[in-house]
Amino acid sequence: MKSNKRKRGEIEAKRRKAEEWRRMQAQRAAEQRRLHEYRIALARGEVAVVTSALAPSNSYSTPDFVLRGTYRPEPFICKDCGVAEVWTPLQQKWWYETAKGDVFMKAVRCRACRTKERARKSAARRVHLEGLARKKPPVS
Ligand SMILES: [Zn+2]
């Protein structure tokens, strides 16, 4: 005959096993839901994220596109001229995976303003370097 203590132990073990099973089922369901959403997103024209190609980040948080696994069109308003533009999935993929851009940076300028900003920056750099060159003592 089993002791009460042993019976209680068996009941407790069964309860734990059932709990573990439920947790596993919930986990599997969540994974399947994610996979399902991922496939729908790809079918909608979103582009798969290759996490291994991303620049490493020191942040503890994870960007939305990494959690989701896809780049989706991101509408934004240009901070310089106020025009509405869409940052396309392929542009994002290029920025994050090829150019190794910061994973927490997003597009803020339209194409035209980006070109202008790039020209302004390179002009500023040239002026700065020319200034430095003037300060250097002449080489004799
Ligand atoms: Zn603009």
TrEMBL record:
Domain of life per record: Bacteria
Q: Where is the Probable zinc-binding domain?
A: 75-121
Record InterPro entries:
Zn-bnd_dom_prob
Name this polypeptide is given: Probable zinc-binding domain-containing protein
